[in-house]
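Researcher: We're teaching a course module on how sequence relates to structure. For the next exercise, students receive a sequence and then see the predicted structure as tokens, so they can try to spot secondary structure elements on their own. Here is the exercise chain.
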Amino acid sequence: MNCCVFVFTSISVHAEKGWIKQAKITKIVGVVNGGINVRITPELTGCTSQSGYGSRYASLYPDHAGKEEILSIVLAAYMADKTIAIYLSDDTCKILEVELGGR
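Model: And here is the predicted structure for the students to work with:
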């Protein structure tokens, strides 16, 4: 009798300052304050997102000087199914910079 064992693993990144060098956008949410929440793979953990979306969302706040440019890159990556790199400015997963194509 042949038997197979499947092991499922979940890849995640804990919230901390620095680059996530290769990420795929899985969800984009516009929130009530004018900011954007972004969910990616690998999954984030431990974030403090805007509007109570939970620990798996990074946040682009409405007062970010480059909000429109970053949102353009995030949307382009999502629509084209391309990789991005995201720089988080702190352990709450506040988005500071993004790069289309990853690092």
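Model: If you want an answer key for the exercise: DSSP finds one helix and seven strands in the chain. Residues 4-9 have pLDDT under 50 and may be disordered.
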